[in-house]
Design goal:
single chain; alpha+beta; two-stranded antiparallel sheet; rod-shaped
Length: about 190
């Protein structure tokens, strides 16, 4: 038995190429009535071709599966924007039909947007912030507005510079101009 010390590259791609070369050689260059002894068994040309094809078959299947995966992944990537849009439209339609706070949305995997209950401390802080905001923006409620009265009649003059309006004096109640009171439960020191 001859000792063949040539180095063989057994990476899948190289092995595939090697088997293709063997297959082509057995089909074209091997004598038609010839045979080879492989693993102690005599193999004819047709059997050698079958052996090579059987060895290549899983490699071809792997390559085909890889190509199918690459194509499927590309199709998935291309479909994602349209799928996102469709999901948003379906979700919006469900919320519009059932209502934003409906617990039935959970059956569709959509969280209902029921407002969370505030703790007493959060409610107090919310009221204090609203009061400060109203004072900074000089907004008033209906009773506060009713207490504001103008004394006299505004003066309107029209001249070459345009129309000029001088408002009447406004008498505001003292509570509207008072400094903001500290919220209940605070010391007023800012801590």
């Amino acid at each position: 038995m001859a000792n063949n010390n040539t180095k063989v590259n057994f990476t899948p791609k190289a092995l595939y190429t090697d088997f293709l070369n063997l297959l082509q050689g057995f089909q074209t260059a091997f004598p038609s009535g010839g045979s080879l002894t492989v693993n102690g068994k005599i193999e004819t040309q047709a059997q050698l071709i079958q052996l090579c094809q059987a060895a290549i078959a899983p490699m071809v299947a792997t390559a085909d599966a890889k190509a199918a995966f690459v194509n499927a992944k590309a199709a998935n990537t291309a479909a994602v924007p349209g799928s996102k849009e469709l999901f948003q439209q379906l979700k919006g339609a469900l919320i519009g039909t059932l209502g934003r706070k409906n617990p039935e949305l959970a059956k569709f995997g959509i969280a209902s947007h029921a407002p969370k209950a505030l703790t007493p401390e959060q409610k107090q802080l919310k009221a204090a912030k609203a009061k400060v905001t109203r004072q900074k923006r000089h907004t008033m409620g209906p009773r506060q507005k009713a207490a504001v009265k103008a004394d006299g009649v505004p003066t309107v003059t029209v001249g070459p510079e345009g129309m000029k309006v001088v408002p009447a004096l406004i008498d505001q109640p003292e509570s509207a101009n008072a400094a903001p009171a500290a919220p209940k439960g605070t010391t007023g020191t800012g801590n």
